[in-house]
Amino acid sequence: MSDFKELLDRDKVQQCPRHYVLALTDTLNVMNGKWKLPIIASLLHGKIRFKDLQNNIDKITPRMLSKELKELELNGIIERKVYNQTPVLIEYILTESGKNLTGLIDSMIDWGMLHRTEAIKSSWPND
Amino acid sequence: MSDFKELLDRDKVQQCPRHYVLALTDTLNVMNGKWKLPIIASLLHGKIRFKDLQNNIDKITPRMLSKELKELELNGIIERKVYNQTPVLIEYILTESGKNLTGLIDSMIDWGMLHRTEAIKSSWPND
DNA sequence: ATTAGTACTATACTTTTGTATACTAGAATA
DNA sequence: TATTCTAGTATACAAAAGTATAGTACTAAT
Fold first, then answer.
1. Distance (Å, rounded) from C-alpha B96 to C-alpha B10?
2. What share of chain B is helix, strand, coil (3-state, %, to 5)?
């Protein structure tokens, strides 16, 4: 469907495929940083609360978790549901877009594994 | 092939699919930052020199370009070829792993575009 | 009145990433 | 001898990302 090479024809680089560039930078922004993927990962098996996220994700501070959740919500990846109980209950769930990331994450894993075998072929230090 | 959901079975999160996690973080690291993709993009149509990269990529400073090229080389995404001429000629080219990123980049573009249509459905500000 | 549970926020700090501007080295050319 | 070419490096600074640690607001139970 979309061929990235198009993006890179010398003539086209600057002018043309704005929507591709935007889509790509959107995607990068969504996954950007140390904590986004672990959070998305934790959400893939359903709704989950703040404290549980904090327990699931090793070494994340409440500050970072809070900040990242806000960004993910703003970007339309997760939804924040408030239940008016006492003590208040808040749950985070993935939106459709968030769920759709699964395929992309799989592609990333595939590339990463392929890359490791390539790298070993070129006798690259394996950790 | 690789199902990311596996990664997220509560029981497995911490212990099991280390190779998946490693592969995924490898991939994130490779694309990470402001300049990696533009550089990879510029390299997709063949070998290119430092100064040409600097001209191709808007506003990149030689310091950042140099730093990013080193990282990409270390990560096995590009190769640096030195020709012993005067003045010295140095060319950068993608490795096989680097070329293989095309498919992944396409997946990212696809997700980004899908996400934009989803976002518009939920009346999210477009830009 | 005190303690505990939920979901965070505040403050100060360190580290990483990025910017601005100038400079270097080695050899050929004018 | 001075300038030009390629491919960067050096230094100082600013901004963004992340860490550490403590504290807040609300309510319910003890």
1. 36
2. 55, 10, 30
- Alpha carbon distance B39, B43 (integer Å): 6
Residue nearest to nucleotide D18 (CA to C1'): A64
d(CA B96, CA B75): 12
pLDDT band at A123 (very low <50, low <70, confident <90, very high): low
Please give the residue range of the domain that contains residue A68.
33-95
Q: Look at residue A11 and tell me whether its pLDDT is greater than 60.
A: no
B69: nt with nearest C1' to CA: D8
Domain count, chain A: 1
As a whole number of Å, the CA-based R_g of chain B is 19
**A47, part of any domain:** yes
The CATH number of the domain where B38 resides is what?
1.10.10.10
Residue B9 lies in a domain: no
Positive/negative CA dihedral, A106, A112, A118, A120: negative
Nearest nt (C1') to B88 (CA)? D6
For A66-107, write each residue's pLDDT tens digit. Answer: 999 999 999 999 999 999 888 899 999 999 999 999 999 999
In a domain, B23, yes or no: no
What would the mean pLDDT of B75-89 be, rounded to a whole number? 93
Element (H, E) at B98: helix B96-121
Q: CB distance from A23 to chain B under 8 Å?
A: yes
In a domain? residue B100? no
A-B contacts (CB, under 8 Å): 164
